[in-house]
Amino acid sequence: MSGNDINRRKFLKVMGWGGAGAALAGCDMPTTVTLEEGKETVVSYLMPEEYVIPGQGVYFASTCQQCPAGCGVHGRVREGRVLKLEGNAVSPINEGGLCQMGQAGVQTHYNPDRLTKPLLRKGGSLSEVTWEEALAALDEKIGANSSVEGGKVAWMTGTVSGHQSVLLEGLLESLGGAKHYVYDLINNHVAAQVNEAMYGTTRPTYHLTKAKAVLSFGADLVGVSQSPVHFAAEYAKFREAPRGVLIQVEPNMSLTGGNADLWVPAKPGTEGALAMGIAHELINNHGKDASALPSGLNGKIKAYDLAKVETLTGVPTDKVKSIAKILAEKAPSLILTGASIESSENGYAATAAAAMLNVLLGNVGETITSSGGFPFPQLDAKTGSGADLLQFADAAGKGAIDVVFFHGVNPVFTAPGYLDLEAGLGKIPFKVSLSLFADETTNQADLVLPLASALEDWGTHVPAYQPEQSVIAMQQPLMEKLYPATKGFGDILLDMLKLRKVEGYTDFSDYYAFLQDAFAALPAEFKNGVDNASFWNQTLASGFISIPKQNASITANALDIAVTLPGENINYGLSLLPAIRLGMWDGRHANIPWLQEAPDQITKAVWGSWAEIHPKTASRLGLATGDFIKVESVKGDVEVPVYVYRGVFPDSVAVSVGQGHQAYGRYAEGRGVNPLTILDSATDGKTGEPALYGTRVKVSKVAVNKDEILVQFGGSESQVGRKLAATITAEVFNRTEGA
Amino acid sequence: MSLQNVLTNWSQYRKTHEDGGFYDYEHMWGMSVDLNKCTGCNACSVACYAENNLAVVGKEKFDKGQGMHWMRVERYWDEPDLAAGESTEFSEHGGSFLPMMCQQCNAATCEPVCPVAATYHTPDGLNAQVYNRCIGSRYCSNNCPYRLRYFNFYSYYESSWPEPLNMQLNPDLSVRDKGVMEKCTFCVQRIRVAKDTASRENQALVDGDITPACVQTCPTKALVFGDLINTESKLSKLWASHEVELGKTEQHKKNKEKRGYRVFEELNTDPCVMYLERVKEV
């Protein structure tokens, strides 16, 4: 029996359900499991014949891979082609909605610049090889009989979860000491660490719908967030009568800021001081109980009287007062943080100061609750951090890496320029890129393994941010592969596990077979009381497995940390702000023509880069919309057209992120500039995260570059008195539409 | 629909506002756009590109105003109703986002000027565009106060859909060629499928059977689509609750604070799209 027990544990681990602990205790599931690993002949599921009705579209459920949020999609398939993606109405993540990036998933799939064959570097250049040759090259480097040193093997991926993560961990384990760097330019690593310290969990659940007011320090909920569509749906409910109030504090306007009732720009890097000032006002003039906070912190708050806060942050005293008043009157509220506060030199302390307001206002347990945990730690999302990138760059530069694998990241493009990652990669003898496209990183690789697209591949995904209901999201192919010589991520991982001869994985014919067995091995309590075959079919039909959340209480301790402020730099008088928006995201969507032609929500610019500047600063520098400027930091410069508007803090310049690709296909290449190349080396002291908002620059007017002019949708910034987008006050709205 | 038919029944294709005859239509498709929920995220616009084979024209042509976005999100920085111009130091209320698609006017200004009846009113209350009848005079576009008609100045098939992007094209509608005017159809191909399916199954169309691509994808459910003739439809109820009626150039509301309005209704276009005012805490 004990032998069986060990086998079972091992079996569950191979299948990804390991470590479930309490969730599995006492369940006598194994008797129902028959393990026929990979023995069946797998006929492609694709289009059982009865579904092919000429002229009629059939919808299949899958999971969007355009960002890590894990939205459920329905792909419309007709005559064997996927034509359109729509939100899955029953998915608890996106409730039927889909953002523009998700809609454009078909253009990633049908992109004319896809990689179609494996490539191997021979004598300096990449040339096409067969998969046999590609795998032979891999076998030589990392195979069971190779002399590979596990400690000198590295993987760098974006956010990874589900059974792909299980296979990857199995591979890393077999390599003994191989390091997995998880990197995403867009991440919430700083907030996650503050959450861990405050709540004991990195990912509490936020309830916008229960909040009467939201104060967001740069959290771009409906735009670049952990779950844009989910938070947009929550936002809509939050705005129903009685209507919640949204206050957004950030140095340059995000999409969420563009929808705020009160948009407040604070001097970049001083948001923590503003949070302390708001706390000061809440305690002194609104009777909020300071004893909820550590006494040391109370002492620190006392120093932030509003006159001082105005001097430090540039936010007028009356604005701070009205923010505090709204928060005091509209309980419960919710304080959220995003990139502009987190990704600064004092990011951790500033984020902790903002999060402290939730404790002071009594929001914890009301609008912030426990995530309830996820019972399968092996499958849980491994989310990226910038600190991993810095560590990777360091290891690469030291020559400590012999073999590296890239998947779902393009660090040569997204890494700050000063890291000189290209040179670092030059010191790694064997680089493997698993990619759909010849992006900047892939072009550096010695072996390129062309991936099947998200619409051609199998997978399971565990969204990092799980709303009320946890899910394991199911990704299934919506059509045959466009290019027979591409391979799914899971299949490539299985190939590598076979090269390593890792026990438990070698018998699977492919990833599909693995997933089927993995599903069969899922504890029965998650299967709605149906047999394995029905459960598999049900999951494919619905697009996800529901995982009940456990009710867990949450308690919070505000952190007693001093807020520090960025230093001044007379030579570089302006702050550089990266403008990251829903659409281009971190630059991964620059090769999608629909998204290039979709105007940026705020500036309405298309097909290129721009710099946002406040009218005051523009007039000081003699700039108007359409002029070109050189934005120069100690690390380099970029030249970019200007957009002048009142949605950016004076004495700063916000440059759009996502363009400036030197590779990545016809739509992306040679277009615009990449401000990440001129980032300074500032990091947050506590977490080691690169400070994306911590670069100082100077700006000078330069000649117009005819190839890079600012092209915007629409001619008028003003309604010229016409009733186009009319506005009424919330008071009237609540009176006429309140319950 | 032969030319003979067009000529014989010319008046049928020329319903004007004054006819007051729109209630003999089978349906009258309409929409509602809640600006309190709309975040201006642009999902609707890209969904429209995906559904309706909209060409990507590229930077140079986009700069000339030749973009084909049937559904577009306009953004303004001033707030005339709050008497807030562009003089304050910051845009403290964010932007004003306005999704604009063909307003499917009942008294459409684009229709009477078409010399070949390529744009006419369907018995569904839709302002239709017959591509293969269009000769490209562009009178309709010139006459549309909303600027919601888009002209194919070029043939975009080669440039917009290099292989295999063309595999994504929706076979339910054509790719328009050079010299043809096009515009939002309320996803008429989806309306067609739903009507055909209902009639084949001997069922009546039910509210919710048809969802245009923009409405389907909207993350905040700011868009509602439906039949204004069916008084039980969600859309009709929404119009009624906001006291907006068809056939008016000015709404005489009992409760003047209700949010519904139609853009440029004073021009007597009788649009079938109702907007609900944006809301701000002031």
Radius of gyration of chain B: 19 Å
**What is the number of helical segments of chain A per DSSP (H or I, 4+ residues)?**
22
Strand content of chain A: 15-25%
Low-confidence stretches of chain A: 21-47
Helical proportion of chain B? 10-25%
Radius of gyration of chain A: 26 Å
Give a quick rundown of the structure.
The complex is a heterodimer of chains A (739) and B (282). Chain A is an alpha/beta fold and 739 residues long.
Describe the structure in your own words.
By secondary structure, chain A is of the alpha/beta class. Among the domains of chain A are: 181 residues, Dimethylsulfoxide Reductase, domain 2 (3-Layer(aba) Sandwich), CATH 3.40.228; 139 residues, Barwin-like endoglucanases (Beta Barrel), CATH 2.40.40.20. Chain A is 28% helix and 18% strand. Chain A is built from 22 helices and 28 strands. A 7-stranded mixed sheet of chain A has the order 5-4-16-15-14-6-7, sandwiched between helices. In chain A, strand 9, helix 7 and strand 10 form a beta-alpha-beta unit. The termini of chain A are far apart. Chain B has a single domain, classed as Alpha-Beta Plaits (2-Layer Sandwich), CATH 3.30.70. A 4-stranded mixed sheet of chain B has the order 8-1-10-9. The longest helix of chain B has 13 residues. Chain B is globular and about 55 Å long. The model of chain B has no long low-confidence stretch (mean pLDDT 92). At the A-B interface, strand 3, helix 2, helix 3, helix 7 and strand 11 of A face helix 2, helix 3, strand 2, strand 3 and helix 7 of B.
List the helices and strands and how they pair.
The complex is a heterodimer of chains A (739) and B (282).
Chain A (H helix, E strand, L loop, with lengths): L1 H14 L42 E6 L8 E7 L2 E7 L12 H4 L1 H5 L9 E4 L2 E4 L2 H12 L10 E5 L4 H14 L3 E4 L6 H11 L5 E2 L6 E5 L10 H11 L6 E5 L12 E3 L6 H15 L9 H8 L3 H8 L3 H13 L3 E5 L1 H4 L4 H14 L7 E2 L16 H12 L5 E5 L3 H4 L6 H6 L3 E6 L11 E4 L8 E3 L8 E6 L13 H11 L11 H10 L11 H11 L1 E4 L26 E6 L13 H5 L7 E2 L4 E3 L1 H7 L6 E6 L2 E9 L7 E5 L38 E8 L8 E2 L14 E3 H8 L2
Parallel strand pairs in A: 6-7, 6-14, 9-10, 9-12, 10-11, 14-15, 15-16, 20-25, 22-24
Antiparallel strand pairs in A: 1-2, 2-3, 4-5, 4-16, 8-13, 17-18, 18-19, 20-26, 21-27, 22-25, 23-24, 23-26
Chain B lengths: L2 H6 L20 E6 L8 H10 L6 H5 L8 E5 L19 E5 L18 E3 L5 E3 L9 H5 L5 E3 L5 H4 L20 E3 L4 H13 L12 H5 L5 E5 L6 H8 L18 E2 L11 E4 L1 E3 L2
Parallel strand pairs in B: 1-10
Antiparallel strand pairs in B: 1-8, 2-3, 4-5, 6-7, 9-10
